[in-house]
Amino acid sequence: MKLESILLPGISPERPIIISGPCSAETEEQVMKTAKELAERNIKIFRAGIWKPRTKPGGFEGIGVKGLQWLKQVKEETGMYVATEVATAQHTYEALKAGIDMLWIGARTTANPFAVQEIADALKGVNIPVFIKNPVNPDLELWIGAIERVYNAGITKIAGIHRGFSSFDKTIYRNLPNWHIPIELRRRIPDLPLFSDPSHIGGKRELIASLSQQAMDLNFDGLIIESHCNPDEAWSDASQQVTPQVLEYILSLLVIREEIQSTESLSILRKQIDECDNELMQILSKRMRVCREIGVYKKEHNITVLQSGRYNEILEKRGEQGQACQMDSEFVKNIFQAIHEESVRQQIEIINQ
Ligand code: PEP
Ligand code: MN
C-alpha cells in the first residue's frame, strides 16, 4: 500500500495527534461550547457523531444531517478540522456535501464488508482522510479487509483506530484492548498511522489516562478521546466522556518515549506480559464462572463435587500439552492442580449453600 499522510495543513506530526469532541452532536450549543473549549486548548481535530449506530433500539441515534451544519460552524468559528462517522453511502454523500474534513468508519460498520464497500464506492474521487476503526470482533483480517476496500477506491490517506473488541464476559474494559491485534496490524501495514480510542476501550473516564499511556508506549501515532462540555449529561456514552479541561490534564500526564530508546523494547515486552496476564485473568474468571454453574448442576442432581476420573484426565492432558508447548509438564500440572483446588472450593461452597 502506498499511503499518504493523514496530516492536513497545520496539524503537527508530533505524537500523540489528538482528535477530540463529543460522542454525539446533541445541540448547537453543546457542539459549539465543547469545540471552543477544545480549540482554546490547541486541539486541531474535532469529532462528533451525527449518525449513531446503537446496539439496541431506543437510545439516541444521532441528530442527523442538521448536525453537519453545526460542524461547519465549528470549522468557521474555531478553525478546527471536523470529523464524523459514516455508516452508509448516503451518510458519506451528506458529509462530503457539507465539507466535513475527515471521516471515520465505526466498529459495527467495519464488521460488514457490504457496508464498507458501499462507503468506499461513495468516496471514489475524494481523497480525504478516512479513519477505520477495528471491527467489534477480534478479527484482524476483517479490519485489514476494510482498509483495503477503502484503499482500492483510491483513498490513500487512511489511518486505523483501535477501539477494542466486545466480549461476552464482564471485564474492567468496555471493549477488550487485545493489544496484540493492533501490534500485528502495524507489522502487516507499517505505514498505516494508528490511533487508539481509550474512551471506547475503557468505557469509563477513569481508564482513559492509563490506556492512553499504554497506546503511547506501544508507539501509536494518535488518540481519539471523547470530550463533552457537560459529560454527565451526555446523550450517549456519558460515563466515558471528559471535559476539555480534564482532557488537557490527561494529555499533560502522558510520557512520550522514543522508539529508539533502548528501554523501549523492554517496556513493549512488559506491556505484552501485562496484556497476557490480563487475558489469563479473564479466562480464569470465565472458567470459574463455568465451574460455579457446574456446582449448581451437581447440587441439583446430587452429584459429588470431586470426580477423580475427570481430575486425572485434566492433569494428564494438560501436562502433555504443556510439554508440546515447551513447558515442563510438572509445572503445567501444578497450575491445573491449583486451579482445580479453587474450583472445588467454590463448588463446595455452592453445594452447601
Ligand atoms: C464512536 O466513536 O462514538 C463510536 C460509535 O465508536 P465505535 O464505532 O468504536 O463503537
Ligand atoms: Mn461514543
Give a short overview.
The protein has 353 residues and is α/β, with parallel strands linked by helices. It has helices at 28-40, 66-78, 89-97, 107-110, 113-123, 140-152, 180-188, 198-202, 208-217, 244-253, 262-300, 308-324, 329-351; strands spanning 17-21, 45-47, 81-85, 102-105, 130-133, 158-162, 194-196, 222-226. The protein has an 8-stranded parallel β-barrel, surrounded by 5 helices.
What brief labels describe this structure?
353 residues; alpha/beta; 8-stranded parallel barrel; 50% helix; elongated; binds phosphoenolpyruvate; binds manganese (II) ion
Describe the structure in your own words.
The protein is 50% helix and 10% strand. By secondary structure, it is an alpha/beta fold. Strands 1-2-3-4-5-6-7-8 form an eight-stranded parallel β-barrel, surrounded by five helices. Helix 12 runs antiparallel to helix 13 (329-351). The longest helix has 39 residues, at 262-300. It is elongated. The chain binds phosphoenolpyruvate (PEP) and manganese (II) ion. Residues 23, 49, 106-108, 133, 163, 200 line the site of phosphoenolpyruvate. The site of manganese (II) ion has 5 residues, from loops.
What is the percentage of strand-forming residues?
A: 5-15%
Main β-sheet, spatial strand arrangement: 1-2-3-4-5-6-7-8
Quick check: average pLDDT? Answer: 94
Category from helices, strands and their pairing? alpha/beta
Low-confidence stretches: none
Ligands:
phosphoenolpyruvate, manganese (II) ion
Gyration radius from CA atoms, angstroms: 23 Å
Shape annotation: elongated
